[in-house]
């Protein structure tokens, strides 16, 4: 039997599954490659990390919402939660929401609709308010700056 159901002209279930899982698979591979890069080069030291510094911090001197994210990821990959929270506490707290969203997206590609926080009515406004508050507090309190 070929990859097409007899008479229907639709892809067979196995090839349909592979087709639907291409993007999630690519996102996992990209995430693993990024994690490997962060693990290979220590962003917490000044030993010439291959990624450029934050352009917002370079131009303004202020920490953006993502500043410290690479160092936070490096710390998490090494199991150092206190250091990860120091580098970017908001990103650490948002990781479960990101994982939830990714899982719901993958389930949707497989035909299952899972509830997700992205469909709640006030999610965008609340997330924006939290990010703005984080930036203001982070830049106002010297101990929170990276």
List the helices and strands and how they pair.
Elements: H1 13-20, H2 22-40, H3 55-60, H4 69-77, H5 81-109, H6 123-140
Helix pairs in contact: 4-5
Entry keywords:
146 residues, 6 helices
Report the sheet with the most strands, covering strand number, pairing sense and barrel closure. Answer: none
Helical residue percent? Answer: 55-70%
**Oligomer state of the chains in this structure:** single chain
- Counting helices, strands and paired strands, the structural category is mainly alpha
Taking pLDDT < 50 over at least 5 consecutive residues as the criterion, the unreliable ranges are: none
Compute the number of strand runs: 0
How much of the polypeptide forms β-strand, as a percent range?
under 5%
Give the count of helical stretches. Answer: 6
- Write down the overall geometry: globular
Secondary-structure element series: HHHHHH
Radius of gyration: 20 Å
**Overall pLDDT metric:** 85
The rounded distance between the terminal residues' Cα atoms is 59 Å
């Amino acid at each position: 039997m070929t990859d097409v159901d007899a008479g229907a002209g639709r892809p067979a279930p196995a090839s349909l599954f592979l087709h639907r899982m291409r993007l999630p698979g690519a996102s996992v591979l990209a995430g693993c490659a990024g994690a490997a890069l962060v693990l290979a080069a220590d962003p917490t030291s000044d030993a010439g990390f291959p990624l450029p510094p934050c352009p917002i911090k370079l131009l303004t001197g202020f920490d953006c919402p993502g500043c410290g994210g690479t160092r936070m990821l490096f710390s998490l990959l090494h199991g150092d939660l206190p250091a990860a929270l120091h580098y970017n506490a908001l990103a650490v707290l948002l990781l479960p929401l990101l994982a939830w969203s990714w899982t719901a997206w993958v389930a949707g590609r497989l035909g299952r609709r899972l509830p997700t926080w992205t469909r709640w009515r006030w999610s965008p406004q609340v997330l924006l308010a939290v990010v703005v508050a984080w930036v203001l507090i982070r830049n106002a309190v010297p101990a929170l700056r990276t």
